[in-house]
């Protein structure tokens, strides 16, 4: 992902509107690109800062952004885990079916 791409998806990220692949690319870029991380911080502060100003709760925005990035990464890993689990389950089903066929042939 280039800085131009990352810049385009910052707003989508803040709205939690990215698919797995985009989210992974975006997080990887943000973790290695200080410029885009700064841009994300600014847009986050503008978006969430406005809400927090109304709440009168502005002191912990930096921690909140870090938490958001951490959660996104965690969620992504969770999705990946689920994906792996579904593949393993599928393989088990196939293996069971194959075993059944082999058994049927052996017995028959
Ligand atoms: Zn960048």
Can you tell me about this structure?
The protein is mostly helical and 108 residues long. The protein has one domain (3-107). It contains four helices and no strands. Helix 1 (3-14) packs parallel to helix 3 (34-55). The longest helix is centred in the last third of the chain and has 47 residues, at 61-107. The N and C termini lie far apart (57 Å). The model has no long low-confidence stretch (mean pLDDT 87). Zinc ion (ZN) is lined by residues 3, 6, 29, 33, 35-36.
How do the strands and helices of this protein lay out in sequence?
Elements: H1 3-14, H2 20-32, H3 34-55, H4 61-107
This protein binds zinc ion (ZN).
Zinc ion binds at residues 3, 6, 29, 33, 35-36.
What features would you highlight for this structure?
about 85% helix, mainly alpha, binds zinc ion, 4 helices, single chain, about 110 residues
Quick recap of the structure?
87% of the residues lie in helices and 0% in strands. It is mainly α.
Beta content: under 5%
**Cα-atom radius of gyration:** 22 Å
Total helix count?
4
SSE topology string: HHHH
Shape summary: elongated
